[in-house]
Amino acid sequence: PPLDEILNLHDFEAIARQTMPEKAWAYYSSAADDEITTRENHAAYHRVWFRPRILVDVTKVDWSTKILGYKSSMPVYITATALGKLGHPDGELNLTRAAAKHGVIQMIPTLASCSFDELVDAARPGQVQFLQLYVNKDRSITKRLVQHAEKRGIRGLFITVDAPQLGRREKDMRMKFEAEDPSEVSKAGSRGVDRSQGAARAISSFIDPGLNWKDLEWFRSITKMPLILKGVQRWEDALKAYDLGLAGVVLSNHGGRQLDFARSGVEVLVEVTEYLKRHRGLTFPNEKFQLFVDGGVRRATDVIKAIALGATAVGIGRPFLYAFSSYGSEGVERALQILHDEFEMNMRLLGARSVADLAPDLVDASNIHSH
Ligand code: FNR
Questions:
Q1: Is the minimum distance from the CB of 265 to ligand 1 under 6 angstroms?
Q2: Per-residue model confidence (pLDDT) at position 175
């Protein structure tokens, strides 16, 4: 169907399922074990309801914000998803281009199909990009990548901490991964791997399961970029990250692709804000220690709920992959435009004029129980 007949982010998934190469669909859509967490990620937002304010002058509403101090046209960023060329020959470049047009931030994955430099070179002057990092067993490779990224102007380093081993994604494992074509995976970690067990397993053997809290000191010594842990799932770890002086955490379960029965990000968010207030007196959103959430976000209402509950911004993954697989960068632009339209309407209906207005009193989260 033509793009203007696509009305929401779910539509992109339905179309991609019918039209994408089977291998790409298997890799993008798959999740761990019985895929319970993936389903829960979106469903968890259904437990949060709104308490709109009436009779607010909402002639003008503004949902732009700042993420790690950088402007974003909405409290949403494009999160890191590997292997963009499985879905479209231009791979992650589709995301870079659409992000530029809409003034949103792209997180470049370590395992992008396009090379890191290609994605940085494609950015417009002033366009902000972050880097998602998988830490290599060979730290000299990681150090080189991190310092190169800093030199190239990357504004935030998101270290993935929920993947000491890749989860079992059986849909993907049933596909044999034959990326002899180097265009599908950039050189990172693709040497000497087992290609018989799906795309994810094939590309991930370089990731260091030995990564631990002590390594964070080392990261501090090699870069001045803000450090954020991606994949935090309990308040105790968020508190440790805060105490170590990190810039923030992403409350995420990797789109349900790692530990099945991990809780949804929005559920963990409620717990984290409560306990960090109790133990450190922190209130959120907080400029010094920012909370991000990803997983299952498909509507501006989902985003608004997370922001009202204290997140600075929210990451979206699969919908953009599905959008570019069928429509290239124009699909991603359309997805972002849909979100803009949804923000405008829902901010008005909530009686919220700006992101600063999105406070906890606008939601009823009593169906989400803290730990
Ligand atoms: C991911 N994700 C991910 N995360 C990460 O830290 N490094 C990576 O290489 C990848 N790769 C990746 C590939 C694909 C196909 C998917 C779907 C996801 C996880 C991603 O950053 C994010 O946590 C989830 O995708 C968010 O959930 P939704 O928006 O996809 O539901």
A1: no
A2: 83
CB 111 within 8 A of CB 189: yes
The CB of 299 under 6 Å from ligand 1? The reply is no
What spacing in Å lies between the alpha carbon of 295 and ligand 1's midpoint?
8
- Supply the residues annotated as catalytic: 134, 162, 254
- Helix, strand or coil for residue 72? strand
What average pLDDT does the chain have? 93
Tell me the per-residue pLDDT of 34-65, one tens digit each, with 9 for 90 and over.
999 999 999 999 999 999 999 999 999 999 99
Q: Is 168 in the pocket of ligand 1 (CB under 6 A)?
A: no
Structure tokens at 238: 């968020």
Please name the residue whose Cα sits nearest to atom 21 of ligand 1: 80
Using a 6 Å cutoff on CB, does residue 264 contact ligand 1? no
The predicted pLDDT at position 182 comes to 44
For ligand 1, atom 15, name the residue with the nearest CA. Answer: 28
CB count within 10 Å of CB 265 equals 30
Side-chain half-sphere of 246: how many Cα atoms within 13 Å? Answer: 27
Residue 274 C-alpha to ligand 1 middle, in angstroms? 26
CA–CA separation, 254 vs 263, rounded Å? Answer: 11
pLDDT in tens, 162-208: 999 888 888 888 886 665 454 555 554 444 445 556 676 677 889 99
The answer, yes or no, to whether residue 307 has pLDDT greater than 70, is yes
